[in-house]
């Protein structure tokens, strides 16, 4: 598989910026979700499972990807959804409606219950309800997901000095770290507050040529600001590349801000990994519209 790498010309800098368009891999299972599911689906088939079960929130890219990929590969899919109040609002939620249309069955649980999703009792109850299933963690991160994400970089990418990636559960950047070379510095931009993600990355990453830039989470997961929305809209107007407000938008904002602050040496070559996630924009726009705030606009 050959994925488009697109150069972005920035004014007033000698830094070279390139974007790996993982978002273009698949219309519904885009970017890192395609990579994370690739070997999980193969493993599920090898184990003769017929059902995939996973977890996510109201506008989860992962939930949407599992629903579509499961249907395409002949699996029944079950989504354990955070927020029991959503059970009566499926038709109002573009992500959940998409999942339902692709055959996903939902289990809505309270936020308190959702925090227990990894406990033995919680999983035993699910097995009692649904018999046997192949479990995919929230966000999709496990050994098979990391293996898939190790395929994002190729030998041609040795020319880059920095590889930048948004971070959710840490699987994508772990795969990138493992396939990076000694010439690369891998920088991760978390969408959540706190440094706990480093511990999660170290479970999978086999090298030490990486660091976390934690200054661009905009208040935490799912949080946005007018500045971020304006940046995403302006970036699309200039380059016709859509960004999502949860992951890639924050990472791109951070990288370009760091360039203006001379964080990167002159003539550095930076590769930004566009991990997709655009399906979540519709849901974010609903939330912004309800608050009479500026929305994301990808109209030319």
UniProtKB/TrEMBL annotation:
<comment type="similarity">
    <text>Belongs to the ACC deaminase/D-cysteine desulfhydrase family.</text>
</comment>
<feature type="domain" description="Tryptophan synthase beta chain-like PALP">
    <location>
        <begin position="13"/>
        <end position="276"/>
    </location>
</feature>
<dbReference type="Pfam" id="PF00291">
    <property type="entry name" value="PALP"/>
</dbReference>
<protein>
    <submittedName>
        <fullName>Pyridoxal-phosphate dependent enzyme</fullName>
    </submittedName>
</protein>
<dbReference type="InterPro" id="IPR036052">
    <property type="entry name" value="TrpB-like_PALP_sf"/>
</dbReference>
<keyword id="KW-0663">Pyridoxal phosphate</keyword>
<dbReference type="InterPro" id="IPR001926">
    <property type="entry name" value="TrpB-like_PALP"/>
</dbReference>
<dbReference type="InterPro" id="IPR027278">
    <property type="entry name" value="ACCD_DCysDesulf"/>
</dbReference>
């Amino acid at each position: 598989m050959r994925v488009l790498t697109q150069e972005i010309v920035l004014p007033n800098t000698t830094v070279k910026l390139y974007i790996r368009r993982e978002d273009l891999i698949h219309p519904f299972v885009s970017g890192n979700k395609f990579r994370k599911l690739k070997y999980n689906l193969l493993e599920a088939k090898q184990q003769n499972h017929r059902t995939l079960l996973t977890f996510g929130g109201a506008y989860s890219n992962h939930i949407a990807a599992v629903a579509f990929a499961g249907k395409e590969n002949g699996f029944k899919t079950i989504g354990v959804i955070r927020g029991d109040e959503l059970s009566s609002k499926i038709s109002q939620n573009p992500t959940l409606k998409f999942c339902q249309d692709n055959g996903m069955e939902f289990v809505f649980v309270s936020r308190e219950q959702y925090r227990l999703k990894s406990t033995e009792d919680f999983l035993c109850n699910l097995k009692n309800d649904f018999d046997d299933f192949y479990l995919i963690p929230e966000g999709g991160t496990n050994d098979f997901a990391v293996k898939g994400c190790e395929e994002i970089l190729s030998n041609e990418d040795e020319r880059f000095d920095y590889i930048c990636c948004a971070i959710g559960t840490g699987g994508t950047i772990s795969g990138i770290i493992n396939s990076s070379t000694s010439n690369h510095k891998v920088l991760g931009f978390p969408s959540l507050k706190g440094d706990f993600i480093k511990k999660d990355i170290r479970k999978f990453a086999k090298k030490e040529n990486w660091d976390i830039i934690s200054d661009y989470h905009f208040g935490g997961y799912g949080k946005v600001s007018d500045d971020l929305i304006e940046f995403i809209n302006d970036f699309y107007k200039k380059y016709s590349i859509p960004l999502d407000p949860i992951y890639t938008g924050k990472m791109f904002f951070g990288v370009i801000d760091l360039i203006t602050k001379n964080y990167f040496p002159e003539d550095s070559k930076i590769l930004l990994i566009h991990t997709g996630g655009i399906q979540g924009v519709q849901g974010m726009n609903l939330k912004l519209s309800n608050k009479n705030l500026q929305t994301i606009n990808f109209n030319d």
